[in-house]
Each structure stands twice: as C-alpha cells, then as structure tokens.
Q: What sequence folds into this?
C-alpha cells in the first residue's frame, strides 16, 4: 500500500505490486471527494468511467464505479474497452462532472493506471491533481463501496455506449467520404489497444483499403516492447506497409489518444514531424486560423509556421494538464506534445490519435501527396529539422542529485553548437545557436530520464544526445 503520487496524467503502477484493487479504491475515493467538493450547485454530479484492454482493466473500472456509487455519484460505465478520446467526448455529451480512465496508455504490459479528466473532457489542471492526491485516504482507511449489481439496480451505475456522439462530432471535423473514395491503401496498427476497429469503421467500406493489425486483445503486447507509437514498437506495422506496397501506416497507442504515422516507404514519420504536418494541414489546407499550443519538448517548427501564417504559439510544460487549460484559455486550433498526443479545436481538449490520423489521411487526399512528399512540403516551409530521444532508467534515489547537477550546469557548447539560453520551466532545456535544443527531464509517469533533441543539422543529433547524457551523469 504505497503512497500514491499523481504524475502528468494521473497515477500508474505495477499490477499486483502497488496497482491493487485496494489502491484503485483509494484513488476513486480521492476523486469522488474532489468531484463532490467542486460540483456545481443544483446539479447532481456524475462521472464517466472507461478502461483499456490491459489485464483486469474492466474489473478495476468496476471497483472504481462501486466507490463512486457509494458516494452518491452517478456513474456512466462504458460497455467495453473504449478509446480515451471517446471517453473524453462522453464527458461533454453526458454533461458529466469528469471521468476516470483505467489505462496505463503506452506503459509496459505489467503496468496499469488511473487517469482523471475534468468536466471539459480534458486533463485536470495541476492544482486539481494536487487536490485529488491530497484527498486520497490513507492505506488503512475504510473505503465505502456499493455492490455493483445493487448500484446498477439503483441506476447509480449505468452501462452505455459512448461511440455515436463521438462519431457524429468526428464527421463535423473531417469529411470521411473523400477518404473512403480516394482508393488509398492503409495499414492500421492498433497496437493491441482500444483503437482497434475505429479507422476501419470510419473510412472502410469504400475504395480505400484498410488492413488492420494487432487488433485483438492481448495484454502481453507481443511484437513490441510496449504500446507506445514509436520505433521499435511500430516496426512490424512499418514493415507490413512496405511489404504490401501500401500508401501509409496509421498507428494508435494502447488507449488510442496518441498518433503514430509511417510513410509509403515503411519509414517512421516522427512525432515532431507529425505535429508540424498537422499544423500545416490546418493552416494551409483547411485555412484555419487560431493559436497553437505546444509543450517545450516538441518542435520549434511550430514557431516558424506561426510566423509564416501569423498565428500565436504558446509553450507550456510537458503534459496535457498544462496543454488542455491553455487550449481552453486561448481557444487554440491545436495543442500537442512530443509524445504524439494532439488535440484539436471544435473537439475536446484531449489527445485524439484517431482524429489525428484522419487529418493526416485527409492531408494526403486534399494534396494528392504521399506521406514522404508531405514531409518534403513541410521542410520547404520551415527547413529540415531532425529529432531523437533516449530514455534511460534511473534510480529514484538519484533524481535529486541529477537535478542538482543540471541546475548548476552552464555548458558553453553542446554537440559543437553554442548554447544561447537555458529554460527550466519543466526539466532543463538548453537552447542552441541553430534554433534547436536539448531537453533533459524526468518522466512524470515512469522511473525514466528522457533526453531529447531537435536540430537543423542531422549529423549533430547523436553528439547532442551524447553531451546531454554526460551533463546528467552522476
């Protein structure tokens, strides 16, 4: 019964070690207390609960529902494993007070998680997360529960299918028929997760061929280390695209809030390039105008696009607990982060890997270009940008020593490039003379240190990362 700490997106833990039914109930009680304390006067609070395809996720969701029901909170429980963006949209569609999502997203198979969302469907802000965490009862506390079947009879728990309202809004945001009729050939890698069946449902049945892989439930996530939409986890999907001679590979992560993308050559289009493509699509093809919100770990191509199209760009800390509130504050047209999570105006302020992939396919249809040609189009606008990231497991006891060393670090050059600034908003970001950067930060969801870089000089990617590793070594 370890102390429960909420990171950038809620709480995650190792199943049967710290992620137990008892601890899930404690989290549910903390969230119930938060919901009741922030409920609007005159409105009975309700919460949407959904879950992914990990081991016993549906049972953990039921346990959380029993706690909320015991607190007098109406629960809308999804009938099956449901994508995170669909759960988020259901909050708005049901007029709910928030959501609980039992998922560990892209984490390894042995993990599960407890995500929370506010009444907008978006991430709860940092202050709200602190309140929820403070409300979690101690390990020896008695947590109220109401038997699941009894709660259903009392209509405190109601099973429902949230898909129809979500699909209706998707159809407002992107024309599906031109994609169906385009005659594209698409590989879809659902990564054994909640995105399975969604793209075939939305764009199948026409001239476009959709070949879906990894689309059943398998909590071991074979053929990948974890359901995170980056290499080497996506290598099978990319290889399948090349072998079949298909036009693109659309990828969704374990809970379908993140987007991965591969081109017609079976090459991965990295997350920073995808963000640049999505912004360019909205600005140049759809002619949308509005602010762009980005975390400090994602691409500087967005600032260049902002200047070209005269739209403001706002930078936040890492995580949608920062992005979502800024999107709402600025009425942004898009918000996103380095992990491959992107949210869009006119929708909910939540990452949506399904919609992001649809926009990329529409970009192909509207321009008649292959994915590799779209990347060339982007680089013609902003110049080439190169990115990479390394993740290093760390001893939690060394976190403070690493932070202390990075606080004091004042390197004059990194990767041979002059350092022109340092940003410590979230981690340690060293700004380089070519407009690129090196970022070192601790993961908010796992015991990892992430070292990232983006530079306009391809040959300097590895030297910059190597210097970053030296800076953080203790």
A:
């Amino acid at each position: 019964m370890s102390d429960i700490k909420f990171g950038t997106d809620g709480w995650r833990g190792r199943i049967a070690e710290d992620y137990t039914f008892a601890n899930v109930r404690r989290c549910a009680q903390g969230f119930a207390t938060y919901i009741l304390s922030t409920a609007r006067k005159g409105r009975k609070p309700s919460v949407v609960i959904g879950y992914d395809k990990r081991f016993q996720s549906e049972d953990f969701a039921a346990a959380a529902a029993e706690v909320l029901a015991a607190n007098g909170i109406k629960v809308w429980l999804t009938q099956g494993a449901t994508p995170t963006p669909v759960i988020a949209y259901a909050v708005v569609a049901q007029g709910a007070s928030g959501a609980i999502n039992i998922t560990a997203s892209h984490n390894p198979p042995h993990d599960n998680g407890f995500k929370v969302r506010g009444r907008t469907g978006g991430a709860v802000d940092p202050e709200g997360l602190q309140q929820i965490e403070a409300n979690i009862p101690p390990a020896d506390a008695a947590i109220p529960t109401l038997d699941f079947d009894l709660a259903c009879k009392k209509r405190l728990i109601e099973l429902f299918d949230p898909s129809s309202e979500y699909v209706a809004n998707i159809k407002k945001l992107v024309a599906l028929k031109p994609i169906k009729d385009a005659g594209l050939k698409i590989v879809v890698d659902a990564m054994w997760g909640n995105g399975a069946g969604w793209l075939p449902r939305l764009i199948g049945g026409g001239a476009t061929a959709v070949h879906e892989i990894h689309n059943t439930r398998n909590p071991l996530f074979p053929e990948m280390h974890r359901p995170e939409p980056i290499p080497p986890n996506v290598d099978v999907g990319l290889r399948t695209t090349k072998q079949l001679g298909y036009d693109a590979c659309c990828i969704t992560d374990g809970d379908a809030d993140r987007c991965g993308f591969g081109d017609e050559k079976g090459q991965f289009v990295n997350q920073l390039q995808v963000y640049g493509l999505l912004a360019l699509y909205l600005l140049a093809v759809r002619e949308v105008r509005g602010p762009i919100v980005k975390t400090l770990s994602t691409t500087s191509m967005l600032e260049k696009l902002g200047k070209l199209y005269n739209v403001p760009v706002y930078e936040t800390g890492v995580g949608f607990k920062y992005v979502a509130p800024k999107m709402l504050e600025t009425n942004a047209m898009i918000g996103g982060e380095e992990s491959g999570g992107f949210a869009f105006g006119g929708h909910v302020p939540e990452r949506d890997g399904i919609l992001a992939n649809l926009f990329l396919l529409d970009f192909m249809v509207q321009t008649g270009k292959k994915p590799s040609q779209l990347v060339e189009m982007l680089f013609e606008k902003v110049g080439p940008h190169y990115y990479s990231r390394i993740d290093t497991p760390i001893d939690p006891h060394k976190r403070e020593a690493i932070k202390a060393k990075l606080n004091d670090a004042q390197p004059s050059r990194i990767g041979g490039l002059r350092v022109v600034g340092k940003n410590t908003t979230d981690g340690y970001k060293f700004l380089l003379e070519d407009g690129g950067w090196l970022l070192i930060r601790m993961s908010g969801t796992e015991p990892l240190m992430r070292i990232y870089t983006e530079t306009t000089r391809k040959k300097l990617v590895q030297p910059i990362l190597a210097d970053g590793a030296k800076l953080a070594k203790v």
Summary: DSSP finds 16 helices and 21 strands in the chain. The radius of gyration is 22 Å. The chain has a mean pLDDT of 96. The first helix runs from residue 21 to 38.
